[in-house]
Structure prediction request, 165 residues.
Amino acid sequence: MLGVAAGCQSQLETRPAAGFNLTGVWRVNAGESDAPPDPREIRRLEDRDIVRGRQRKPEASSAFVAEDFPVVKAQRMTIEQDARSMGIRYDDGPYRDVSWGERERDHWRVRAGWRDGALVIRSRRDLTEGVETMHLERDGTRLRVEVVVKTGGRDVQVQRIFDRR
Prediction:
């Protein structure tokens, strides 16, 4: 399991880290990645926690994490990056635009930038807060994405590994 890094509230650098370019096609390395979360299992566990009085916020749910953070189930990502932003196409479905700095998009407050050579995307909406941390490895041919989503319900922590094609 992954933990939320200390100092998540610190400022992020909005200029891309030197040599950090995600442009290209990335395919999941299923053997080294965590399995995508199962929304039915999350909902079952949250319902049990609500009945037992263990869930802090009964209206909170992580069951929609794969829709809100599509990287947790993506098999392929096609990324275009420039000095101000990047666009990500997940599989053949949703497209996401991420601008460096802080923006409001579709009811989400999104902050994106670099810390310690990694790209950090922090997203917040109502009870949900997600942090995606992207690390380039193996001379830029491997991308490790750590995702931590907190809702007040069941937290989701997933690590996905992608290889550049």
Q: What stands out?
A: Residues 24-164 form a domain with the Lipocalin fold (CATH 2.40.128.20). Helices lie at 39-51, 65-68. The chain has one domain: 24-164. The first helix runs from residue 39 to 51.
